[in-house]
Amino acid sequence: MICTIADGGRLKTFLEFIGVIASFAARVITSAWRSPYEFEQTWMQVGEIGARSLPLVAASGLALGVVMTLHTHSTLVTFGAAAMIPKVQSLSFFIEIGPLVAALLVAGRVGAGIGAVLANLRASEQIDAIEVLSVDSFKFLVVPRVVACVLVLPLLTTFMDLTALLGGFLAEHALSHLSAQLFIERAFNGFAWSNFVPPTLKTTVFGFLIGTVSCYYGYTTDEGAEGVGRAATNSVVLSSLLVIVADVVLVKIIFLFFPGSAL
Amino acid sequence: MTESQPTAIVFDGVSKSFGSKQVLQEVSFSVMQGETVCLLGRSGTGKSVTLKLLIGLLRPDIGKVLIGQDNISSLEGDDLSRLRRKMGFLFQSAALFDSATLEENLALPLRRLTDKSKSEIEHAVLRALAEVGLAADRYKMPGELSGGMKKRAGLARALVLEPEILLVDEPSSGLDRITASEIDDLLLEQKAKRRTTIVIVTHDVHGARRVGDRFAVLDKARLVAFDTLQCLENHESKTVRTLVGGQ
Amino acid sequence: MRNRNIITGAFVLAGIALFALVIFLVGNQRKTFAKHVEFYTEFANIDGIMKGSKVRVGGFDAGEVTDIQLPDSPAAHFRLTLSVVERVHGLIRPDSLVSVASEGIVGDKLLQIHPGSANLPQAAPNSTLRSKEALEMSELLERSAGLLNDVSGTMKEVSTKLTGTLDAATTTINNANDLVVGIKQGKGAIGVLLRDENTARSVRETLANVQQATASVSDASMRADRLVSDFESRNLGEKVDQTIASAQSAAQNVDASALQLRQSLTSALGPDSHGVDAANNVRQSLSNVNLASSNMVEDTEALKHGFLFRGFFKRRGYYSLANLKADEYRSNRSLPAATNTRAWLDQPELFDNRPDGSEELSPEGKAKIDEAMAEFGDGAFGRAIIVEGYSSTGDTGAQFATSRVRATLVRHYLQARFGLDSRDVGIVPLRGVPPPSTNKKTWDGICLVLLKPRASAR
Ligand SMILES: Nc1ncnc2c1ncn2[C@@H]1O[C@H](COP(=O)(O)OP(=O)(O)OP(=O)(O)O)[C@@H](O)[C@H]1O
Ligand SMILES: [Mg+2]
């Protein structure tokens, strides 16, 4: 009995939590469309979230590309299918690994950053100070960050895809002296737009989730300095989780609309 | 102090509590236009909370807070912004934007809330900084400032829009006597030149006696006194007498 | 601040440029930016073709399937819209065939448009091209299995008859040789023998048999031809092609040898026959026919065992016994292995010299072979026997020729005497040098090798 009551309570808080986040997300969406638009802030966040994440994303892409090729090389060579390596590489990165890993990296780096920065602004009364200056702090701080996440993730994903391809090529070149031209030709042979455009654009959803979740934790924290760390951690955990869950759903949706994109 | 003077601020039966902690209980007072009120009280009695209630950062549990004719605690969005545009606020912690230089901290409200040109803004910013003695430090980031400098910069930001109502939370804390009295001069000048309505939270009795027209004393969640200096110096409560610097 | 803006700008521009680059790379592969022409085609069974499946024209990636209209009744067909680049339009003629193919064994399904006849005009855009329905693999297997059964049955029959006839002919010819000797000694003419009614009838019957057999083989080989082209269109492994090709060539060999035999017989039976020459020709021809037909049996047998030829040959441990090459044989570890049972037969008693210098099995030799086979016992039947021929006299060429002749002679004898299946008896001419695993430096004569049974071959 106690157990069910406790669970009922927990379920209630869980539902409440979902409701709060959902209305936060709805607020992001509605206020994003109302003027005044914070272009300058958005541009700054594009730099902060996008350009500053590029080294991390590019380096990870390169490393993953090399590693993937080393793995698939030994496997595919035993099947005499070494010629498939570029295609395996490009398809796996463009369809799934690129978008997902880029999103998870951004969730880690940017999610924590946004959570901590906003929580700190809140704790040091800077958000109140913005409010006092008759500036809508939500539009000033939250919307630009979410919009920047949405805009930047497809770009970062493209970078990841291509650096992974480059890493794959370097590894393959070292192993079998495959020429760059042949590698590209094989990588994109039989490659459809639906293998690239929908998976890349789906990261806008990831961006929205990462931005919204981390802004939620940062913006609504009310616990002073110790809340900063918690906001950062929670942002990363929940946004990574949501990215993965959303990926499952999006893959299914993309497959519905673009049957050709399935492997 | 005649009854014909219009009231700028009315605090009407305001109670505020955080969780189980009652911070303010049925506090009522009103401030005339152009009047300077000093809010005194021991640490943790709710002075900062009172200021935040005045500018709508906090909402009262019971009661009303009127700024002019408007109940600020029931306003939202654009209406709230419009009302706040008349008000300047100095946070106890100064709350400078620590990702921007001093100059940008001051320029932000000007840029967003006025249609001044770039050079006019620059000019206004420089003047406000000069008034608090920070003209030379305008390109510094808040992290590079001392506590007192931050306080002065915060005051400059509160003044840069030339507000009708100025709410300042401990403007002279962390300042030496000389600088503190310079700040007091500045406040007196505001009052004289622009007939600014000022509410000051302060522990600096000396300064308060110079600038304050009336004094409000908070104790144990209640407003125990709200009157002129002479009256309070002879107040029945020892706490009140001590706080205003009497015997 | 300005610096940061520059970095942000560079990032955004680079990102957009790379995005565009990928789109361009993909588009380039798909030839999206080139001009396209559309054609239609209809299939009862589209075999997994989807919207977006590739279309190749003469093997060139030229476009994709852009639409599939579903049939509304079982009698109707799927109607596919194919979009191909304008540049290959010239290859597509009104008689171009469209077929379903697959990219590698596990690859995607795609459509192939086979270039049409050069003398026809280009197919009009939006016209409907004829389609070639995909044959189900299972159906194909069934068909080929049936055909191969026929071929292999026929060939076995022919082979048995040939072996019998060859034996008879050899005896006859040996008799003829005796006669020739006799003639030389003034005992009569070879014509007498060949005009002898019995011998002539037997030879004629055999000839008729062989002719009948070759006719049916060439019919089978025609059907095999069709099958082969079917296989080819399906890109099956090269191995299949090779095996079928060798079956065909074997069938042609049988044809050729049969023709030669007929000529030899005709000339032998002719009014102005040349005695010994003619007789030898007959013998040579018969022996050729025999070899060719046994090769064919081998190949068709392999085919019959399905498409996993490699498996079939592997389990047996050798490919064709009839075509063993000396060097391969020596270097193959499993064939000359010491564990196989060997019977070494020494030349002096084995072969006699005929008057013309060629060798033949002596009666003692035959007895020795019988003895060796008796020693092998029942186990010899159904297992593979390799006849190693040795000769250590003369130069390398002569050694090789003689050792081959000896092995052949013994093989014929084994087949005739013990009814051994031709595909179970292999020959290999080894000159005077046995394989290293036998520890023998040199040999002159014959060695019968009974191969160790492998894990059951069928
Ligand atoms: N956001 C808040 N949440 C919970 N409690 C609060 C909050 N803000 C203030 N309090 C509580 O209200 C009480 C009054 O706080 P306030 O900041 O007004 O004190 P103060 O009079 O300004 O003191 P000081 O002179 O030290 O600044 C304190 O006990 C404080 O703990
Ligand atoms: Mg305070």
Mean pLDDT of chain B: 87
- Per DSSP E runs of 2 or more residues, the count of β-strands of chain B stands at 10
Largest sheet of chain B: 6 strands, mixed
**Rg measurement of chain A, Å:** 21 Å
Distance between the termini of chain A: 49 Å
Strand content of chain A: under 5%
What is the fourth-level CATH superfamily of one domain in chain B?
P-loop containing nucleotide triphosphate hydrolases
Describe the structure using short key phrases:
heterotrimer, B: 247 residues, alpha/beta, Rossmann fold, four-stranded antiparallel sheet, 10 strands, 37% helix, globular, C: 458 residues, 60s Ribosomal Protein L30, Chain: A, seven-stranded mixed β-barrel, four-stranded mixed sheet, elongated, binds magnesium ion
Reconstruct the topology from this structure:
The complex is a heterotrimer of chains A (263), B (247) and C (458).
Chain A lengths: L1 H32 L5 H12 L3 H25 L6 H39 L2 H7 L4 H40 L3 H9 L8 H5 L1 H18 L4 H33 L6
Chain B lengths: L6 E12 L2 E12 L3 E6 L5 H9 L6 E6 L2 E2 L5 H8 L2 E4 L11 H12 L4 H14 L15 H13 L5 E5 L7 H18 L2 E5 L3 H7 L2 E6 L2 E6 L1 H5 L4 H6 L4
Parallel strand pairs in B: 3-8, 3-9, 6-7, 7-8
Antiparallel strand pairs in B: 1-2, 1-4, 4-5, 9-10
Helix pairs in contact in B: 3-4, 4-5, 6-7
Chain C lengths: L1 H29 L5 E8 L10 E4 L2 E10 L8 E8 L11 E6 L6 E6 L13 E5 L4 H48 L5 H6 L1 H37 L4 H32 L6 H29 L4 H8 L9 H6 L9 E6 H4 E3 L5 E3 L1 H14 L8 E6 L5 H23 L6 E5 L15 E6 L8
Parallel strand pairs in C: 1-7, 2-6, 5-7, 11-12
Antiparallel strand pairs in C: 1-4, 2-3, 3-4, 5-6, 8-13, 9-10, 11-13
Helix pairs in contact in C: 2-4, 2-6, 2-11, 4-5, 5-6
The complex binds adenosine-5'-triphosphate (ATP) and magnesium ion (MG).
Magnesium ion binds next to helix 1 of chain B.
